[in-house]
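Sequence in, structure out. Go.
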Amino acid sequence: NAAILPNVVDLDRFQARGPRNDHTARLLVARNLEPLYDNQTALRAFSRILERHPQATLTIAGSGPEEARLKEVAAELGVEARVQFAGRVDRDTMARLYRESDVVLNPSLADNMPNSLLEAMASGVPIVSTNVGGVPFMVQQGVSAMLVPPSDPVAMAEAAIRLLDDLTLWQRLSATGLAEARRYTWQRVAPTLATLYRSALAD
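Output:
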């Protein structure tokens, strides 16, 4: 038999950001710099977002073998001055980055149940994610996240711009994400884990 055991998010560390100031457009990617996570699509989407929100910034928090190439892509797109490659950061710094962000982009080509999305929801930050793997089972399009096809920077940019331009939509996704995150606390997941262990031992 197979069972799904959800990941756990620490609500003591990842806490809700304050209300959105509609004069800011701070975007965050919290994935490692590897081909699987397709950060190039996030950069290409960001270049389109800048056309609508020229004051926007993008922080990419993660490390990996694609760092040099991604910096080249940012330069080729002419967005390097608006992009910060933060590298690998500790969990408290990561929590601060979420709270300072207006939208989280997840351009991954494959995913199961990414902690980065749980952490974003716990921080009250709306998400634009590819609709791959387990992501559509975690979040619902237009309700708790904006879902787009993989490798589609146009769709990702349009979804992010819609969130940045529509404060009501932003607030709704923020509130729904916060409520969803409470399903993934240790207190909620522990009984499921205990039941699975008891079942395995009984077998």
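Check: The longest helix spans residues 186-202. The longest strand covers residues 26-29.
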